[in-house]
């Protein structure tokens, strides 16, 4: 694994505008950054990332049955009692799921280490599935990458195929919802709508704020039509704490992601995975936090923190780092395994799971060991280590 500088495409911003990638720059700072890319060998992709992603996904899925049948485990994950039966029933019915993202620390040497699972509302999807593939094709055509350069990326095809599999199980009408003012979330649901449409599954977009609730407790669109199925890019745990979300268990609404994903998107899953697979090469030691001062060599993470918020890091050498944010409540501790540094850039590898298959990666890098919401997306390529250096000029 190497970080290699490369000339960016002169028209990349025009291409981004053409395909609706409006959040490539956020608050004047680059989010999409193609001035460099991460190079992998095929062996690193297949043996160090793809195979472990499938295995970790299967281990996580193997825990769902145990968790939903245990009030004590639901309590440890801080899942409100009013939603536990609904979550458990969605699992017993095996309500289908679409996708998820596993975040790994990986430097090209040794096993990738799981940081967390983003299995309810994973983002950075469009840029991973579509825009970085377009970058690869353009850079091969320009001669800046070898003609045989490849990418671990069949995310788009996997999404279309998965939507085709889901089509018969989703009650109509299907809607796609995100917060109105979130350009990134709106871009993500626009992309997913397009994938679904390519599979013959058509659904309208709606702002989350425009969804109504009928007198008999069913969710409706702006025309007061009852919504049958809803892809919602909004955290389930936030809905649990909202008056509007309290109607979910009796509403009859089919959700994507399904309610049982709440137990996999929860960082409390990390100590449960460690307890049941202690010493697994792709897992980090983890335990439920008991409060107090964080010992050296550990990281504290709230159960529901997102985008690197409210993370406390106490490295073995005594260095402490902390990120601000809105999250509080129960936390876990995870053994500190700092991200690798490439000339001051700290990449985290997001491995995409669609259905139950690993199908691609996206890399976000930060200037800090904590990957925050300001992290940049940097493309990747599979190239041989001995490829001529002129390709990277």
TrEMBL record:
Q: Would I find Signal among this entry's keywords?
A: no
Q: What keywords are annotated for this sequence in UniProt?
A: ATP-binding, Ligase, Magnesium, Metal-binding, Nucleotide-binding
Matching entries from InterPro entries are given as:
GSPS_pre-ATP-grasp-like_dom, PreATP-grasp_dom_sf
| Glutathionylspermidine synthase pre-ATP-grasp-like domain ranges (all copies) | 12-382
Q: Is RNA-binding one of the keywords?
A: no
Pfam families reported for this sequence: GSP_synth (PF03738)
Query: Which stretches are transmembrane?
Result: none
Protein name listed in UniProt: Glutathionylspermidine synthase family protein
